[in-house]
Amino acid sequence: MTKARQFAACATLVAALGIGPAAADISDGVVKIGVLTDMAGVYSDITGKGSVLAAQMAVQDCLKAECGGMKIEVLSADHQNKADIGSNIAREWIDRQGVDVLADMSNASIQLAVPPLLKDKNRVGLFPGGTARLTGDACQPEHIVQWMWDTYVQVAGVANQITKPGTKWYLVTADYALGHQLEADTKTLVGAKGGTFLGSVRHAFPATDLSSQLVTAQGSGADIIALANAGGDTVTGIKTARDFGLTQGKQKLVAFFSDRHGREGRRPGNSPGNHPNGGLLLEPGRSHPSLHGPVQGPERHGTVSDPRWRLLVGAALS
Predict the structure, then answer these.
(1) Which residue intervals of the chain bear CATH 3.40.50.2300?
(2) Exposure b/e, 271-310, CB count within 10 A at least 16 = b
(3) Three-state secondary structure string covering the chain
(4) How many CA atoms lie within 13 A of 188 on its CB side?
(5) Per CATH, which fold does 151-317 belong to?
(6) pTM, full prediction
(7) Contact (Cβ atoms closer than 8 angstroms) between residue 303 and residue 291
(8) 66: buried, middle or exposed (CB in 10 Å: 19+, 13-18, 0-12)?
(9) Which residues pair with 125 in a beta bridge?
(10) Is domain 3-146 annotated with CATH 3.40.190.150?
């Protein structure tokens, strides 16, 4: 985690809690931050222990500056990618352990389940990224802070650049809240560019095998096949596409999440968390993929073609 991101996390914490002379009134004089994350599942590479460490680093920096003299504790737990488990942990933290802030919540179903609890208990949730519904129909402006990516941004970073009038899209979609929102955002953005959304095939979350879904997508006649999933599911999708030679013909494969943090960031010489989580485009005739986005809105986008992306593809295809 860079110094800039640590400062941003601290500043968000300060703003969310109204930290100042009255800080001792929070809980029993201790600010408690609960990092609710995926410790061993499909998102553990890009969240998990790394998210806990990032929170601890941010607290350490804040204690040397704006938070000097305060008592701040970081708790962590594994939500196991299940909304009921995540909600129960969050409620227990708040009711019995006096947790003031929940952070990470790296699963769209959990992101949608927790905000009503935050409102009811007058607590704050810090979401680094997630479903666009967090700033839409599920928004709780007095209890939610979301400061990085969302599903709309991830789709727009790719779709706005490669969709032309008549371009045909087909999705392989994770059958839960994240995939559903990625699919909805794809329909909107592709349609706005004059493209055609042919349909989708859904897979269980988390995925163990995507063979059937990729065969269906390959036979759809689409110009672009997109993986509307993330983390380990995206890696599984890329591996399966390679096995079936999906990009050997005219079709292009898109991954809305690159997982560069989890794959390249762990290699020597690379600092995890220093690079954007853009969309990834794999297409015939290219020796390496191109990174698209992420963007802050439908009119801001850019493409980065970087040979270091071979490391990501190598990890996914190994």
Answers:
(1) 3-146, 151-317
(2) ebbebebbbbbbeeeeebbbbbbbbeebeebeeeeeeebe
(3) CCHHHHHHHHHHHHHHHCCCHHHHHCCCCCEEEEEEECCCCCCCCCCHHHHHHHHHHHHHHHHCCCCCCCCEEEEEEECCCCHHHHHHHHHHHHHHHCCCEEEECCCHHHHHHCHHHHHHHCCEEEECCECHHHHCCCCCCCCEEECCCEHHHHHHHHHHHHCCCCCEEEEEEECCHHHHHHHHHHHHHHHHCCCEEEEEEEECCCCCCCHHHHHHHHCCCCCEEEEECCCHHHHHHHHHHHHCCHHHCCCEEEECCCCHHHHCCCCCCCCCCCCCCCEEEECCCCCCCEEECCCCECCECCEEECCCHHHHHHHHHC
(4) 13
(5) Rossmann fold (3.40.50)
(6) 0.77
(7) yes
(8) middle
(9) 102, 144
(10) no
Measured CA to CA, the distance from residue 211 to residue 97 in angstroms comes to 45
What is the pLDDT at residue 156?
A: 94
Tens-digit pLDDT string for the chain (318 aa): 443 344 345 444 544 455 433 444 565 789 999 999 999 999 998 899 999 999 999 999 999 988 899 999 999 999 999 999 999 999 999 999 999 999 999 899 999 999 999 999 999 999 988 999 999 999 998 999 888 889 999 999 899 999 999 999 999 999 999 999 999 999 999 999 999 999 999 999 999 999 999 999 999 999 999 999 999 999 999 999 989 888 788 899 999 987 544 343 333 333 333 233 556 676 664 544 455 555 444 333 333 333 333 333 333 334
Q: Which two tokens stand for residue 60?
A: 């350490």
